[in-house]
Amino acid sequence: MASTRTSHRAYRRKRAKTLREQDTCSWCGQWIDPDVRYPDPMSGSADHVVPVSLGGDNLGELRAMHLGCNLERGNGTRRSQPERHGRQW
Q1: Which residues contact 69 (CB under 8 A, 6 or more apart)?
Q2: Which stretches does DSSP call E strand in 1-89?
Q3: Residue 39 needs a FRET pair 20 to 30 A away by CA distance; which of 54, 69, 70, 72 works?
Q4: Predicted pLDDT at 77
Q5: For 23, phi and psi rounded to 5 degrees?
Q6: Are 45 and 65 in contact (CB under 8 A)?
Q7: Is the pTM of this model over 0.70?
Q8: What's the domain count of the chain?
Q9: Within-domain flag for 78
C-alpha cells in the first residue's frame, strides 16, 4: 500500500494535537464540533499555513479549519478569506 503525505504517523499526531488545542475554525471563525466526523464539511481538518502545493512543509505549521472551509480555501490562491458582515439594521 502506497503512503500519502497525510498518512504518516508524525503528521497524524500533529493534526490531532492541532485539533485538540484549537476549537475555532481559522477561516470562518465558528466552533469546530469534535463529534462531527469526516466527510462532513463541518468536521475538523488541519490546514497548512503555507500550502504544501506552494512549497510548504507537510509537518510545518498547521491550523484548525472545518473540512468545507479548508476545501474552499484550497491552496490559498482561489479567493481571500470570507467577508464577515455585522448585523444589518
Answers
A1: 25, 27, 28
A2: 44-48, 62-66
A3: 54
A4: 60
A5: -110, 10
A6: yes
A7: yes
A8: 1
A9: no
Which three cell numbers, joined as nine digits, stand for 69?
472551509
Q: Cβ contacts of residue 40 below 8 Å, gap of 6+?
A: 67
Q: Is residue 14 one of the residues assigned to a domain?
A: yes
Query: In 3D, which of 68, 74, 69 has the Cα closest to residue 41?
Result: 68
Among 78, 85, 72, smallest CA distance to 25 is for 72
Residues of the domain holding 65: 9-73
CA dihedral 73, 75, 78, 81 (to 10 degrees): 40
Flag whether 67 is in a domain: yes
Identify which of 64, 52, 53 has the alpha carbon closest to the alpha carbon of residue 27: 64
In the numeric block, the cell 499555513 is attached to: 49
Q: Which residues of the chain have pLDDT under 70?
A: 1-6, 77-89
